[in-house]
Write a structure and sequence with these properties.
Blueprint lengths: L3 E8 L4 E8 L5 E6 L2 E6 L6 E3 L12 H5 L15 E5 L5 E5 L2 E2 L21 E3 L3
Antiparallel strand pairs: 1-2, 3-4, 5-9, 6-7, 7-8
InterPro entries: Lipoprotein_repeat, UCP029720
Protein name: Lipoprotein
Organism: Oceanisphaera profunda
């Protein structure tokens, strides 16, 4: 989901108006319906997952784990809001979280709506609102 705010300005008192669009850099997370019910996805519609071995606000998926389960990255300009937060991983990278649970993608999900990571190794689950 992309958030934009429009600003209008009168040009030289001539009554001419123009608009510029500024991104608000909010959480790049949306919801979608799936065979497993309503789930969280990234902006491209790719399913998001949580890891049972994580702790609130702490990612325990590093190295090879993070290669297989890429973290949903955030930037220093992104703003946490409501249930959506930003955590700092052990490698210093910022990652989005939902209700303090770090969010991940699954490398084998290839198209929007794929949910192949759900239940993987009995510790990975779809992120649900």
């Amino acid at each position: 989901m992309s958030y934009n705010k429009l600003f209008s300005k009168t040009l030289l008192g001539l009554g001419l108006t123009f608009a510029i669009s500024l991104p608000l850099l909010a959480a790049p997370i949306q919801t979608a319906d799936s065979a497993e019910g309503e789930i969280l996805t990234n902006e491209a519609g790719m399913s998001l997952y949580v890891f049972e071995k994580d702790q609130a606000g702490v990612s325990n998926c590093n190295d090879q784990c993070a290669d297989n389960w890429p973290p949903l990255m955030a930037t220093a300009k992104d703003k946490a809001e409501g249930d959506y937060g930003i955590i700092k991983r052990a490698d210093g990278v910022l990652q989005w979280s939902y209700k303090e649970q770090p969010l991940y993608l699954w490398k084998d999900d290839k198209a929007a709506g794929d949910v192949f990571g759900d239940g993987k190794f009995d510790v990975w689950h779809l992120a649900k609102p």
